[in-house]
Structures are given as C-alpha cells and as structure tokens.
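Incident review: delayed structure delivery

Summary: a single-chain prediction request sat in the queue longer than the usual turnaround. Root cause was a stuck worker, restarted by the on-call engineer. No data loss occurred. The affected request and its eventual output are reproduced below so the record is complete for anyone auditing the incident later.

Affected input:
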Amino acid sequence: MEENGKVHSGEPHIGAAALRVERTKPEQLAQVLAVYKRARAFMAEHGNPNQWGNSKPPAAQVELDIEEGNSYVCMAGEEIAAVFYYKEGEDPTYRVIEEGRWISEEPYGVVHRIASAGIVKGAGSFCIRWAFSRCGNLRVDTHRDNTVMQGMLKKNGFSYCGIIHLEDGDERLAFQKAAPTGLVLEGGGMRGIYTAGVLDVFLEHGIAFDGVLGVSAGAIHGCSYVSGQGGRSIRYYQKYCQDKRFMSFSNLLRRGEMVDTQFCYHEIPEKLDPYDFETFAASPTRFYAGCSNLKTGRPEYIRITDMKKQVDAVRASASLPFVSHIVQYEGMELLDGGCTDSIPIRGMLRMGYRKNVVVLTRDASYVKPPQYIGPGHIVYCRYPRFMAALKRRPKTYNETIRLIRRLEQEGKAFVICPSRVMTISRTCRDPEEILRAYELGRGDAEARLAELRKFLEG
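Output delivered after worker restart:
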C-alpha cells in the first residue's frame, strides 16, 4: 500500500478557526487532489522528491479511499487544511518489520497519505493526534528522506520501530505510538499563574499532549491551553485580579464564597475575554478536571468535552472548602480537587497515560506540613470521608511527590516546578506579583525545552 506524505510541521493552530476532522465527500475530490499536488512540490523542495514523485497518490487511489470511507479532511472553517487516510485494522505492509520490532501487537490504526494545504500551522499534527485519539495505538510509516514527517512524529510521541516494505518493494521507516502522553497540572490558587506561564511556552513551541488533567487552578489554566489561547490566563488575571467580583472577602461575606461564580465562569469566558469553546471541543486532547467527592472522600476525574455545558465541573475543581459553596454536578457533591488528590499523577496512570509531564506550583524542596483544618468537623459534619481525606492531605501530598520523583528517575515522568521559592499568596491581588510568577513559569519552561522534547520523543 502506498504510504504517507507530510508537508507541514507544528501543532494545532492558535487563533484561527477551529479545526475539525470529517470524512471526505466525493465532491471534494478536486480540492483534495490540489492539496496532494502542493504536497508533492513541498516535498521536492525539502529534499524528498522521490516519495511521491510527480503523480502519487494517483487520483484513482484517492477516489477509492473516499468510496471506502477511509479518506478524511481536516477543515479550517470551510477550507481544507489537510487530508489523510485513516483506518483501523491490520495493514498487510506491517506484517513484516526488519531491524526492529513494533512497540505493541495490540489492534491498531494506521495513517497514510497525509498532506497539508499549508493554510494552518499544525494541521498535520492535529490529524495525527485525532487519529491516535480514536484508536490509542497508531502506526505510521514514511520515506527515509521525509525528515519533516519524521520530526513531526517524534514530537508527537511516536517511536521509531524499524523498516517495512510496501507492496512494490520500496523501503519505509516505521513508527508507532501505543501509550498516550499526559499532562498533570497542580493547583495552588494564585500560585497557579506559574502554570499558565509554562503552558503558554508549550503552546508557542508546539508541545501537545494526548490528555490533560488539571486540579483547581491547574484546571482553570489547562482549559485555555487545550483551546489554544496562549496569553489568555495572564491577560484576564492581571485585568480582573483587583475586581471584587473576581475574588474577595467581600464576596465571601455577601455571597458565602470568595469567587463570584457568575462573573468568573460566565461573564469573563462568554463576554469579557471570550473562551474558544469551538476549538476546545474540536481538540483531540482529552481534558479532565480533578474534583473531590464529598460523600466518598475520593477524587473524581471528570472528562470535559463541552466546556460551556460542563463548566460547573471546572468550577467544582477550583471551589476551595470553607470559602465556596458545594457544587452539585451530575448527582455528586463536589469541591476543590486538591483536597483529595492535589497532584493527580495516579489518576493519569490509571487512565493509561504512561508518560506524563507534571507541572508543580511548589519548588523542589517543598514538603507539605501538617495542616489545621479549623471548623471542618462542623462545616462538613455530614461528610466524614471527606474530612478524613482532608486530614490525610499532607501525608498524601508528600507520598505523591515521592512517587513522582521515582517515576522521574525511571524516565516515566518529567517535572517542571518553580526554580525558586514563590512567595505569592493563594489570594494575591497584586498584578505585578502575578506577572512575576507567570514570568517565572515561562522562564523555567523555556530553560528545559530541550530536555522536555527529548523526554517526549524517547
């Protein structure tokens, strides 16, 4: 079977119309062939003139792909941003592999004939990540001269496996990805703006993950990362941090919680600093909000697919005990996820994410001390299991840090944390101090980009 071509590197776009993947329609044939024509020219210009030559893939092959329902287009608005072949099931050309072995022999999906129209940066990566999100075990092959494709695959977590041969005998380099990559985001109130700085660097450098699990402030900033809105968190945090509706004790006295939920979870994302709900929904990255279930005393990792409809799950994740109302969500009573699982690495591992990047908001020397839980037995007297979890929190936190360090030594986790002790408070309202914490996050992420890429590509 003729194999894939690739013409554009990078990650899902920022700021353009949301990308979406759909099956190719017969009436789109001419447009698809035009994309492939551009791809042939691009490959020839970039040292890969032989993979597709002047005629591959032939129109008859593309028509057959469309007829069989295996041709897909990545749409940016009404324009085709990329095209590719995707199918789940055995590929005959992958039965024999030389000079290596496949990572997994479990059922898999394949991507062939991928090409970008060149109108949206990262369209190719978006397609690859979409395909992986469908099957969780993806095989791809490419020409030895197609260094652009090879780089994109490695950046998206694929491993080189060996050499396969097409039906005509041509050699191809084989790659596979069988374990999804995860991003774990700790909370910490206003300390979480450090995480926003880290995530903005990730966006700027095209670093993407298959799954993101955020707790509290980590969930808040993780939302804008998945929607591709770099700079959004620091922008509205600085603009509204001194607004009483954003966070204040006057809110607590008047409303019974420090945060004005209508303002923070509706007015800001829907009107004042619009959230890109469409891009979030189209993203192949799975997003989870970590919350605490008061009745069970255990964490809940809630998959968010529609941010507007499920915003209360994110609100629950960031609803601190004692200063927030209990959030009712799908029959559960929820509060801040940090109460039961401050750094949800175990949750990601249980969901199958074997390689995780962890962003902490405490420096490497931090050890959580015993904590006074105040009038908790009175306020939450109906929730003894939740209170037990609160009491265990320092012990659980420190045990989790030890687990993360062990995973880091084993090459299964990569940790980014503040390079110095941060003095910013959980309720900081100083725009300059908030900016300093954000810039620290950016600086720490930029300093470790090369290490991070090596970890993700290994």
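Verification: Confidence is low (pLDDT under 50) at residues 1-17.
Action items: add queue-age alerting; document worker restart procedure.
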